[in-house]
Amino acid sequence: MKSLKRWGIATAGALAATLALTACGGASGAPVESQAPAPSSSEAAAPAELTFWGWAPGYADSVKAFNASQSDVVVKYEEIQPGSRGGYEKMLNAVQAGNAACLGQVGYETLTSFAAQGALEDVSQYANANQGEYVEFAWNSVKVGDKVFGAPVDTGPMAMYYNKELFEKHNIEVPSTWDEYKAAAEKLKAADPKIKISSPYANYDYAGMSWQAGAPWFGIEGDSWKVSVDSDENKKVAEYWQSLVDAGTISKAPMYDPAWFKGLGDGSIATLVGAVWQAGVIKGDAADGAGKWAVAPMPQWDAANPSVGNVGGSATAVLKGCETPEAAWKFANFLSTDADSYGNLIEKAALYPAAKALLDLPQLAKEDKYFSGQKIFDVFKEEALRVNSDWTWGPNMPLTTTKLDDGLNKGWAGNGKLVDALVEANTATVENMKSQGINVAD
Amino acid sequence: MSVVTPTRATIPKPRGNGRQARTAALLLAPFAVIFLGMYLAPLCFAVYRSLFVLKRDGLGLTAPTLVFDPFTNYLKAFTDPVFIESLGRVLLFGVVQVPIMLALATGLALLIDSRSARAKGFFRLTSFLPYAVPGVIAALMWSFLYSGTSSPINALLAPLGIEIPFLGEDMVLWSVANIVTWGWTGYNMIIIYAALQSIPGEILEAAKIDGASAWNIAWNIKIPMVRPALILTAVFSIIGTAQLYNEPKVLQSVSGGSIDSAFTPLMAAQAATAAQNYPYAAATSVILAVLVGILSITFFKITNRGSDA
Fold it and tell me: Does a structural domain hold residue B133?
């Protein structure tokens, strides 16, 4: 009897069933939070009360600072599990049950999926006035169509992390275009076949490449979605990386695998084209790379018209059922734009601001020892302002990225073509949307 | 089995019927509640849920509605090449891996049971030990041994110019089979060994006096006598195979795409759940459960034919 295994699987099954149960019928176990009784429109003296669910370290301090700064709104902060580890489930279930918090921390890539579950509240009437305070692409990340679902908190503009020591040793110029990047890959390989220019990119890390290239995956045209994961622009990106795979210049170590960290540390992986928060990832898990790595702008397709991609970042979203959306927006905007409170978030959670005015915070002007004293945020500031603003996430990203990864992993391993991954992901996504009755433009 | 218990308790003493029935009910209650709440209820709910489909309109930016449409999910599952392929894959896995594992388990049990065996306790414990390692931990350990970037096995073989593609498309299923065999052989061995222990000594004695060799005793007496234990372990292994999840899921990230998101039926159901399509995930789970049920019952029927053991 495979009882242990069966037990584990049974537990997983029971869990899934429970999730399904709560998702369907409002039998959620989440405690009922006291909703603020007074709607914000009534000019009563009692302050509006609302609850905020999040997990980033430092959010509790920001809530305290907000509550101290004014007397109209009282925010109660409740720390929940990070989204992918159950936080999103909790929010979706609570919305179904009608006892969700007013505000929740939601990643940009998940925001549209939340909207597709009917879990968000449109606050455009309060929010639009503040639009100008945010970098454009971040603002677009909290918008679906004309609706605004929250305030952008942080972003993940991309740049190129590279092993400076390696490039200097082999006397290779730091690439500024993708053509130069490919040439550098070949030179490094010629110098030492063990050196790979980079490693496989999957799901959202890969999306950043498409984002930069002006190759959107989704778009909205009137009342229909446009799915373009396998568009010609996207094929161009995939074919570029395919040529690097075919040339044997891409490592086999998947990102975030121990082998990947080893490669970053020992000089067998020369670059990582990734978001600002990857700095923390590298520093934490590739300690051997200290003093070797540096940051340069993301290589360009067209040096004359520089454009940058984004990976990650999150919003303070207004969840469905919030009775005080105006007060909720007031706090969300404070969290994203107050300099003192955001300085604390940079220190505690390594967030990178979505508000333009905060890009010059002193916390972002520090020299970094790991990067041999480079002020890496100087690079990211320039990059943040160049991030392509034309990007929309689809209504079911888990489905799209799962299918995409199935194919990409094969492509990176040399068992298939990266382009095929795009076609498969596109087909599966369109089929899924159509089968549920969502309008998809051809 | 548990259903039999109250009947047995009531037969010998008809007079104390009422009280005994109450006692039996009381004793059964914890099991019944947990069985109903944790097993039957989710099962029924899965069946119920599988009869609906998700419907949206426009951009789909509002909550989907559930529409009763009892056949769509099942039709979709039976025409979904990805799901059918995953069923075929675990079937192939079971046909090859289960006999190998049970043969190994039986062989080990016979060796430990044999008269001339030394250090029985030691061998019993060591062959059982892999079972004590939680499945996910074991899979992580094996992923390190298999991975193209870290495999010490391939590092040792490298000077000979040999590289075993443990995670290659053609081999990965058997690499998973190896992990499962490693983890479960000892467990099955213990069950078979326990059955061997219960064979009456006089039978073996008689066979020995009649001049049967150790080989003959094992083949003609011991194995037929532990047949119920073999059938039991086989059925549990069939069920376990259908539920294959942990090992391939852990290997997926290092497999270079050889293991995709729908490698086994459970992984396919999990992927459908992640994509927020609970009704479809429920339908595939129900299909899997029914197939396993049919397979197990058929296996019981076939193996019990002409035997009264």
Answer: yes
Closest of A30, A62, A46 to residue A316, by C-alpha: A62
Task: Confirm whether B92 is domain-assigned.
Answer: yes
Q: Which of residues 298-327 of A touch B (CB under 8 A)?
A: none
pLDDT tens readout for residues B161-172: 888 899 998 999
DSSP class per residue in A218-273: EEEETTEEEE-TTSHHHHHHHHHHHHHHHTT-B-SPPTTSHHHHHHHHHTSB-EEE
Domain count across chain B: 1
CATH number at residue B139: 1.10.3720.10
How high is the pLDDT of residue A1?
Answer: 39
Q: Distance, in angstroms, between A404 CA and closest chain B CA? A: 10
Q: State the pLDDT confidence band at B306, using cuts at 50, 70 and 90.
A: low
pLDDT value of residue A45: 63
Q: What angle do CA A428, A433, A434 make, to 5 degrees?
A: 100
Instruction: Give the mean pLDDT of B6-29.
Output: 70
Q: Which residues in chain A (203-242) have CB-CB distances under 8 A to chain B?
A: 220, 223-225
Let me know if residue B242 belongs to a domain: yes
Regions of chain A short of the pLDDT cut 70: 1-45
Average pLDDT of B68-95?
94
Task: Provide the domain limits for residue B140.
Answer: 83-275
Interchain contact, B149 vs A415, CB within 8 Å: no
Task: Out of A415, A433, A437, name the one closest to residue B257 (CB).
Answer: A415
Contacts of B269 in chain A (CB under 8 A): 16
The pLDDT score that the predictor gives to residue B15 is: 56
Per-residue HEC secondary structure of A140-203 comes to HHCEECCEECEEECECCEEEEEEEHHHHHHCCCCCCCEHHHHHHHHHHHHHHCCCCECECCCCH
From the list B63, B149, B232, the residue facing A118 with the nearest CB is B63
Q: Measured between CB atoms, does A403 come within 8 Å of chain B? A: yes
A86 reaches B (C-beta below 8 A): no
B302 assigned to some structural domain: no
From chain B, pick out residues whose CB is under 8 angstroms from the CB of A439: 57-59
